[in-house]
Amino acid sequence: MALDRCYSCPLGVAAGVAEHRACPFVPREREAGAHLYVEGDTADRVWYIVSGYVALSRETSEARSSGVTWAVRRPGEMLGTEGLVSDTYRDSAVALNAATLCVAPREVVDAWLGPEDSPARAVLQLALRTRCNEVPRRSCADGNATRRVASWLLDEAPSQNAPQIPRQVVAGLLGMLPETFSRALARLVKLGAIEIDRRTIRVVDLDALLRAAGEGEGEGEGEP
Amino acid sequence: MALDRCYSCPLGVAAGVAEHRACPFVPREREAGAHLYVEGDTADRVWYIVSGYVALSRETSEARSSGVTWAVRRPGEMLGTEGLVSDTYRDSAVALNAATLCVAPREVVDAWLGPEDSPARAVLQLALRTRCNEVPRRSCADGNATRRVASWLLDEAPSQNAPQIPRQVVAGLLGMLPETFSRALARLVKLGAIEIDRRTIRVVDLDALLRAAGEGEGEGEGEP
DNA sequence: CGCCCTGTTGACAAAGGTCAACTAGCGTGG
DNA sequence: CCACGCTAGTTGACCTTTGTCAACAGGGCG
Asked: How far is A30 from chain B (nearest CA, A)?
């Protein structure tokens, strides 16, 4: 089972292939364009990229380019690790080239990683959770400023209490300048979706906000 | 040493505070606006956020807003974990609020995490490395399209072999549309920095490329 | 009380998104 | 084997969006 490359693969080493133990990950070939998994799928497998490139995209709702790639994973990186902290995949993954990937079922990896409360595992869990909650920084290609602000507000709405992040900072996260952010908020106020004062934002009409965030989207899958 | 909250903190649990063992992380208060670390500093400490928000920014060169926040870390997340896979911090971290952070020296954490070749540790290492190489998705607030493309080419130049990523995908990473990407490449060709055909890009004048990427930056710190 | 910093608003110009037409390469199917 | 048609990429013209610069307002802190 152990191939030459396994001896120099960090996972192979950790699995102990040198001591003739088996690595839970088994190699598999995928052709260019293959969908490895889709955002929202049950996260039941974890990958390690041996060769090839994989694009990650997220239906960050939005625009014409629904499904813009926001990251590329390369050989030596893992894929689908969100399965270790979440039930579903956060992104869609597509092979950009013909690729060799080592795959393992989630629960096997889970067992292989050892006790849940070991330090390494605890830190791993935290790191994965952080990554998985991370929203790719928005750019103008994901719809106009008002829409980006609206959908950001929807994400943050649950944690209504969260705010007190300076507007300058929020603007940065949304990939726009403070001035633009301010104007976008003003527009949402005019639409009756929110109320603001200099330092707080209150959602007053969720529907209006949803409309502003969705403006001419919702297509996505269904039609012929 | 163990506070109440340590019993429900994943790190405290992993450290075994319930069994009266000590957690390597010790709490510390920081006021709003405090710089926890600066991009490029020697990464000698690791943090866990108990309360408060922390903004991460990166001198992605660029524009007026040099040092745009590209992510916010919240309570329950870790900070400075790049120290476990790199010598220097990748971002600058600033407390947005008065915050309580648990800190531990890098080498202590390193030892605490256990053997380098355990599965959990191997996966952790991979996850951290991936995150740390990750370039925040670019947005128009980080300089114009041509500059972003130029600086992307500079990042990718070492891995010259890397390409064969479809242009559509690269455009997405750079936060622009394929058309804009195409035009930006054309501009760089006109500047003599690169040569392109429909599917390859060759850097022919690194200086020109540097100039295009840097165009009117370099200010950053120095002036009164 | 006054200064400074953050956020707001306005006017303007440029950058880039949109739509559309066109080309090159590649794979498919006749 | 060639032709056809598709997809990815390029280029052009136009117009919205947003970055830019500047002036101003509110709040907090000294």
From this structure: 16
